[in-house]
Amino acid sequence: MLTVFLQFLFSGLTVGAVYALVGIGFNITYNATSIINLAQGEFVVIGGLMMWFFSESLKLPFLVSVALTIVTAGIVGFFMERLTIKPLKNPDLLLMIMITIAVSIVLRGILMFVFGKDPYVYPSFTEGEPVSIYGAIIQQQTLWVIGITGFCIILLFFFFKKTIIGKAMLACAVNPTAAQLVGINVSKMVMVSFVLSAIVGAIGGMAITPISLMEYDKGPMLAVKGFCAAIMGGLGSNRGAVLGGFIIGILESMTAGYIHSGMKDAVALIILLLILFFKPAGIFVSKTMLQLRKF
Amino acid sequence: MKKGDSAAFFVFILLIILLPVLSGSTYTLTVGIFSGINALVAIGLCILMGYAGQVSLGQAGFYGIGAYVSSIASLHGGLPIIISAISGMLVAAIAAVILAVPALRLKGHYLAVATLGFGEIIYIILNEWGPGGPSGFGDIPHFGLLWYTIDSTRDYFYLIWGLVAVVMFFSMNLIHSRTGRALRAIHDSDLACNAMGLNVVALKIKVFVLSAVYAALAGSLYAHYVTFISPSSFSLFYSILVLMMVIVGGITNLWGAIIGAVVITVLPELLRRFEELDVLVYGLILTLSLMFFRKGLVPILIEKMKKLRGFAIAKH
Questions:
Q1: CATH of the domain at B8
Q2: Full-prediction pTM beyond 0.80?
Q3: A112–B110: do the CB atoms touch at under 8 Å?
Q4: The CATH number of the domain where A13 resides is what?
Q5: Which of A230, B181, B211, B309 could cross-link B48 (Cys pair, CB 3.0–4.6 Å)?
Q6: What is the ipTM of this complex?
């Protein structure tokens, strides 16, 4: 009984970690620009597929592959912002969202052309026996996924609290005009936010691929789930996105395990709707915070 | 209806009548039929977005409800197709009211996500409990009136575009009526409307239901034309597609919805020659048209024509 429960819990934590990373990606761009970047899921796919390309196809060493994948994702984020977001002066938010959807279709088209429609996989980061806790079997890669997510969160925390660029980005989130007035280059911060969110997404993709495989069209569903995570935690709050991601992941795997596997996606969405209807600010955000928002 | 619209409407009817005569190829007509079905959904969303200022990413849900309810009612319930199509619209309307009451208090991103969530839930329900599950079901009867079954492509073309014309006529009149003016006022400011004594919530719900009914009508037309449906036609991707149609055509003009629907439906057909690159080219065209024709095709065309006319008058 406990064994089965733990098994579901760990598989929920694994997918939840990726949802959390996607959710954080949404937050980073949302905070800097008020844009919901729906190409966020594609960054995850890029992470997984490029990691396969570097480590399996080119047979590069592990760390080199990781570095190159991160750089690739960053470049994609950079060009996305410079080519589609920056040229538009003073745009309508809905239009912006649609443009990110269009960009996601372009990215999907490129990924399909380069990698085809087959799923890809590569071995876990470390070889070795799975860990057993009360009879529940945990693959080593699961620990990697959760560990990497935790590491990313801590890193981001320090980035926003301690570094000058991080602080400048937070300032843009609070009030872009005021940020501009004190000499922050807002346009540059927007660019950084896209690069950063692409990298965060790609890291999630790299970590999850050995467990759940990766194919060119996984992006949209990942984006929806990650978005649910961000909304659940209150859009813009990274702590909220992490909690939201884990909650959705765990609920999903519990539903799949105890009720019915086809219903797992519905449960996350129903909870999302309930939260939206009864506490649209997210579970972890106070009313005053909400009033400060543009939406 | 305004003067310009009446002229446009006349040309529109003429085009509908003439197209099958001029180009009798089944392929052209089939693409035309799908454009018409999509146009119905797009018109509904255009009223909702362009006039009432509400976003929906869940139109595929209503479209799916229309298709499934109508098919099941006619196939298993043995109802005449008109009755089954109407029951599809009714179920969609009820679903729309249930969703609208809590959802329309939300704004912007949140409303978009709530409708998206609704659409996905319907999609999952169709996958889990719909006849045939993910692989869908067939043998859905063709559309018919009493003893006359419509099964030729040309007749279907006339039926669907005839309905588009009816819906368009009704919607145009609605927009230029008192209700329409109230809707545009809501688009500009909820608060001011409330202060003027308009029942903003009731109006928003009505428009939301209207857009759902249009989508459900399109869904049942789709099901009875294709005679085979599966959940994959009613996924989030379809909602996004309809949103693209409305935005590409021009959100502030109902004709934009029709033009957008035709463009977005025909585009993938034209891109077939690119084979594996078609998704990529499709995405590029969408991105560029969103970036450089921000107002949408129809409003830009109207502006251009006005400029030309102004130029002509200045010359005299």
A1: 1.10.3470
A2: yes
A3: no
A4: 1.10.3470
A5: B211
A6: 0.81
